[in-house]
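Standup notes, protein team

Yesterday: finished cleaning the Pseudomonas fluorescens set.
Today: Histidine--tRNA ligase structure.
Blockers: none.

Input for Histidine--tRNA ligase:
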Amino acid sequence: MSKSLQAIRGMNDILPEQTPLWRYFESTVARLLDNYGYKQIRMPIVEFTELFKRSIGEVTDIVEKEMYTFEDRNGDSLTLRPEGTAACVRAVLEHGITGGGQTQKLWYIGPMFRHERPQKGRYRQFHQIGCEVFNLDGPDIDAELIVLTWRLWGQLGIRDAVKLELNSLGTSESRGRYREALVEYLSAHLDKLDEDSQRRLKTNPLRVLDTKNADTQAVLVDAPKMADYLDDESRTHFEGLKARLDAAGIPYVINPKLVRGLDYYSKTVFEWVTDKLGAQGTVCAGGRYDGLVEQMGGKPTTGVGFAMGIERLILLLETLEQIPEEISRQVDVYLCAFGEAAELAGLALSEQLRDQLPGLRLQVNAGAGSFKSQFKKADKSGALYALILGDDELAQQVVSVKPLRGQGEQQSIAFDALAAHLATCIVQG
């Protein structure tokens, strides 16, 4: 027997019962970003592999082990995008929309791909919403990005479940001095480092700070601190950011081990983390990348941004039971029609109702069926009300409106009064 078809491991279907919550989350974020003056950009899913090697860094875990890379028919090396910032930078450079110092505040949404070990909250195809801001170099825009995410957590009802962690990586020069000091210190304790940290010490030593190994963490207690190597410019920038967060009343903690997993970050880095999802605690992260545009061939252009993982935030909403009641109900009214004449009248009536009540979620029974079977489908739909249309109702030019969720008695409503009646019922329901 042939093997049954199934999705690739770590690449999941989002089923109909799940999509209302996704749509609610995505529309909430989109509306918020619109209100803050951000414009949406849509980039391709596939890019030239060189883009990510140049931007993320060839010795990062993503480039070394996690990218989906292949050759196309022309022999070009292509990669499914593992993150959005590099693709967004490529787009603004290609189309010249940051030229001449133009400020751009952009956001995007879509799938990303990394060949990781699938687990709860971590997938090989995952979805992100990201923001990128170009040609603004002050701490005020760093603060705005954090403030708007704080507002989002409030709108979603999850503020109490997330914590903001901050750090500054300084400029590339100060980070280079710190890297030398860190390597010197860790090299003196090489035998106490785990195997992965020993490898990173030669390729990307700052990533050792992010280790989860208890023995290596013990070694890091007395390691040099990034704060001691910050240049004056970075220190002033970081103090300005903290002052603005204090003014906005946003709590935070300084995490000197926060380095992020991508090579292009400088100065501000931040993460929103939660302890409600087990090991996968980061739900939104970002920072400043002032040298990335120039590194990718453009003129010196400052940049800062973040990305949030949709799967993890959906999981957090479900875990905290922060799902609006209307999200679980996809139908307001279910129309049951009995007999061909009633079906024809019901079709016309339903379209009139949609004209009069554009927001009404109205499902019309399809496939005919007995009174019992239609009512069973009406109840299963989750609708608040069933509209009943048969020969008796047609003769009287009325519709029987039957509550399905205990909202009172069945009533007969005239055709021309039905829209007004439903508008009142649905609001009250």
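Follow-up from PR in the comments: The mean pLDDT is 90.
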